[in-house]
Amino acid sequence: MTGTAEWIGNCAYNALIEEVNTTPKPGLVDLYSNGAHTDMDVETFRRSAEALRPFFVKMAREGLSFDGSAQELFMGLRGVGIDAEQAMYAATGGVNTHKGAIFTFGIFCAAAGRCLKEQRALTALGLLEMEQEMTVRVLSVELEKLRGNTGITGR
Questions:
Q1: Percent of the chain having pLDDT more than 90?
Q2: Is residue 36 packed enough to be buried (19+ CB in 10 Å), middle (13-18) or exposed (0-12)?
Q3: What pLDDT shows up at residue 148?
Q4: pLDDT at 99 over 80
Q5: Could you tell me where the DSSP H helices lie in 22-98?
Q6: Residue 144 banded pLDDT, cuts 50, 70, 90
Q7: pLDDT 10s digits, 121-137
Q8: Which residues lie closer than 8 Å to 148 by C-beta, 6 or more apart?
């Protein structure tokens, strides 16, 4: 199980490294330029990715071992995500390089672990279905609360 969680977490880490190394990306940080960003560069992204790697492993491990519902798994990830965010800020001197990736990759790392635990397989469809099972109810409630507070209407 530890090797599997490491593999999943390393996939997330490698995706972050591949993204920053993708060049050219006009206006964004890449190997040639900081783009429109004055507070970050490629090294900032690399330090951030390295700081986040153990948290992606931890989230994958949760997916592999958690015995509650998929929704409960998602709710349990929030604390790990907050810790990951603090590690990112510590590694980058307070720069937000990967806050959105912590949320998205964290869910997918846990979902990948859960798929392997329950289905003994990892497919794109299985991963998407697990991610939705984990998040749809919780995020729908949160969106409804936002709509009530802001007057936003629609689907």
A1: 87
A2: exposed
A3: 79
A4: yes
A5: 42-65, 70-92
A6: confident
A7: 999 999 999 999 999 99
A8: none
Cis peptide, bond prior to residue 54, ω within 30 of zero: no
**C-alpha torsion sign, points 43, 106, 109, 135:** negative
48 contacts 93 by C-beta, under 8 angstroms: no
Q: Which H/E stretch holds residue 142?
A: helix 124-150
Tell whether the torsion through CA atoms of 30, 28, 106 and 121 is positive or negative. Answer: negative
Has residue 155 got a pLDDT over 60?
no
Question: Tell me, what DSSP letter sits at residue 36?
Answer: T
For position 154, what pLDDT does the model report? 60
Residue 69: Cβ within 10 Å count: 12
Instruction: Please compute Rg for the chain using Cα positions.
Output: 17
At residue 75, what are phi and psi to the nearest 5 degrees? -60, -35
Tokens 């190394």, residue located: 21
- In angstroms, the first-to-last Cα distance of the chain is 40
Tell me the two tokens of residue 44: 């900032």
How would residue 31 be classed by pLDDT, with cut points 50, 70 and 90?
very high
How far is it, in rounded angstroms, from Cα 11 to Cα 13?
5
